[in-house]
Specification:
This protein is an alpha/beta fold. The chain has one domain: Rossmann fold (3-Layer(aba) Sandwich), CATH 3.40.50. It is built from five helices and eleven strands; from the N terminus they run ββαβββββαβαββαβα. The strands form three sheets. A seven-stranded mixed β-sheet has the order 1-3-2-8-9-10-11, sandwiched between helices. A two-stranded antiparallel sheet has the order 4-5. It has a two-stranded antiparallel ribbon with strand order 6-7. Strand 2, helix 1 and strand 3 form a beta-alpha-beta unit. The longest helix has 22 residues. The termini are far apart.
Length: 210
């Protein structure tokens, strides 16, 4: 576990193969740098794993940015935290010798929201994204160029936290920016199940093999 010099408490697990991707793992509210490591391994057992801990605390629970209420984000904090997280990723690429052309973000809930913010703010930072239970982080004033960026967006039909129209809007935003979006509706709620992890794994395998 390291906090300096990259500024985030985080875990880095080296790749098991030279051609393996790196997965940037961004946990949900109350998670930490260990939370998504098992999911990362289920997605690709060879991949390098880079997993930071969110620096905002909400009643003692780590998050990646503040919110004002359920589903209402603190936009100024989101912008600042997105820049801070992008700086961490850029430093980690150099520190750990990560190939940015094979760097995929995997975010769940709050982590998926800040991952979507990264895509919209730093469109060249990531090779692709797996967004699990994401919401629209903000509406960009100018649409970024995400041409050719693959995004797997998994949503739950019974999700009490993310309205379906919000998911549809996020998919639309990313598509308008040029991203290649796969929207996968699951029957469950806000939690993620083995079926969609397997579906995300299959999607990732296809993208890596291109």
């Amino acid at each position: 576990m390291t906090e300096e010099p990259l500024g985030f408490v985080h875990r880095f697990v080296p790749a098991e193969a030279p051609d393996a991707p790196t997965l940037l793992l961004l946990h949900g509210t109350g998670g930490d740098e260990n939370d998504l490591l098992p999911v990362g391994r289920m997605l690709d057992e060879r991949a390098a794993l880079l997993s930071p801990r969110g620096k905002v605390l909400e009643y003692g629970m780590p998050r990646f940015f503040r919110r004002l209420a359920k589903g209402v984000f603190d936009h100024e904090d989101l912008v600042n935290r997105t820049h801070e997280l992008a700086g961490f990723v850029e430093q980690a690429v150099n520190e750990y010798g990560i190939d940015p052309r094979r760097l995929f973000v995997v975010g769940f809930s709050n982590g998926a929201n800040v991952a979507a913010s990264l895509l919209l703010t730093y469109p060249r930072l990531l090779a692709g994204a797996i967004l699990l239970r994401a919401m629209v982080p903000f509406e960009p004033e100018r649409m970024p160029d995400l041409s050719g960026t693959p995004v797997y967006l998994a949503a739950g039909r019974s999700d009490q936290m993310v309205p379906p129209e919000n998911t549809e809007r996020l998919a639309q935003l990313l598509q308008e920016a040029g991203a290649d979006v796969t929207l996968d509706w699951q029957p469950g709620g806000h939690g993620i199940g083995p079926e969609e992890v397997q579906a995300a794994r299959n999607w990732l395998e296809d993208e890596i093999s291109k």
